[in-house]
Amino acid sequence: MGGWCHESLMAISHAWIVRPEARSCFFSAPQEFTEEKFGQAEKTELDAHFENLLARADSTKNWTEKILRQTEVLLQPNPSARVEEFLYEKLDRKVPSRVTNGELLAQYMADAASELGPTTPYGKTLIKVAEAEKQLGAAERDFIHTASISFLTPLRNFLEGDWKTISKERRLLQNRRLDLDACKARLKKAKAAEAKATTVPDFQETRPRNYILSASASAAEQELRVAQTEFDRQAEVTRLLLEGISSTHVNHLRCLHEFVKSQTTYYAQCYRHMLDLQKQLGRFPGTFVGTTEPASPPLSSTSPTTAAATMPVVPSVASLAPPGEASLCLEEVAPPASGTRKARVLYDYEAADSSELALLADELITVYSLPGMDPDWLIGERGNKKGKVPVTYLELLS
Q1: Rounded distance between C-alpha atoms, residue 362 and residue 344, angstroms
Q2: Residue 92's pLDDT is what?
Q3: Per-10-residue mean pLDDT for the chain, 398 residues long?
């Protein structure tokens, strides 16, 4: 040991403190990770609030993926078409216009009417139904377009933008934590070696070794301070990103409202188109429309919300007359003793004949029912005018 000199010892200690690459590392991040998995090393735990933020972020990501995929299936049931649209999107190219199923059915019906005879009752009906199916197809196309922009695009932007940033910062935080734990283990080992060396008698031969152990412990303490600072800084960055998930929820909530609005508009358009179609078919000779059973419960057992949301098939000929009578004069109809109710009109309605009352959206009318009356209809009064009105066009007010 006589070869050791003061200059050599100073050089070694300088290498430990100033040149990290010159010192031998007892632990590395991969080794630390492996030992943590086997329970052979201590792990720096995050606080409960941080863990809750991580769990909420993971749940948000997982459910956003599921909702996105299922909405894509709803809007485009054909898996091949979905793959094609995905490829066009990745190539940043415009997706070609695709004929909807309703529009294709409309084309087949129109062609069939042309070949079978457009002037026959069957041909005329085919043409009318084809026109309605074409309108349904156009409404479906508008709904898909609106839902894709207002709902699917924000969900994709979160998964492909914000979530990737969060994942990247979480990986950096994991690496900083492993570095920190490795530094803690290194310092612990250095302290233990230094403490052990102090128990050995102070011989001339042990002094250089004790000096090296002391320098090693000092260097480990410096490394730990640096690692702790880097870990704290990265934890704060990650925490801010995770807390931003609350803003993501607010944005997705707004998008969800837009999706419901577009879906409501779509189904309302479909319902109006089919009501108009059924009224037109009811005027054709030889056609069979209507229903033999009531499509909704009577007014007395129907709540305002249920009555407004129910969408029964409206009979083409709804008579107010009891069985055995040919007709009932509207002028002779009087409100029942049980009283009347107010109703708000949801959609415009064009009267099919003189027994019906034309309606304008958002106007208020007085309505009531009569014994033996079709439950899908009510008597409506506006000023000195009265007539039958369909229940599904009304929102009954309490």
Answers
A1: 6
A2: 72
A3: 41 40 44 52 84 95 96 86 70 74 92 92 92 93 92 94 95 92 86 70 54 73 91 94 95 95 94 89 59 41 40 38 47 73 89 89 91 86 90 86
User: Which of 349, 347, 361, 355 has the alpha carbon at shortest distance from 374?
Assistant: 355
The one-letter amino acid at 212: I
Q: Which residues on adjacent β-strands are paired with residue 345?
A: 394
DSSP for 5-39?
Answer: -HHHHHHHHHHHHH-GGGSPPS--HHHHHHHHHTT
Tokens of 258: 């837009």
The DSSP output letter for 341 is E
Cα separation, 146 vs 142, in Å, equals 6
User: Which pLDDT value is given to residue 140?
Assistant: 92
- Measured CA angle at 108 (ends 102, 109), to 5 deg: 90
Both tokens assigned to 209:
């070794």
Yes or no: say if 210 and 199 are a contact pair by the CB < 8 Å rule: no
The rounded distance, in Å, linking the Cα atoms of 276 and 289 is: 12
Q: How far apart are CA 362 and CA 92, in angstroms?
A: 44
| CA torsion through residues 260, 264, 267, 273, sign | negative
Judge residue 245's burial from the number of C-beta atoms within 10 Å of its C-beta, 0-12 exposed, 13-18 middle, 19 or more buried. buried
E strands in the chain: 341-345, 364-368, 377-382, 385-390, 394-396
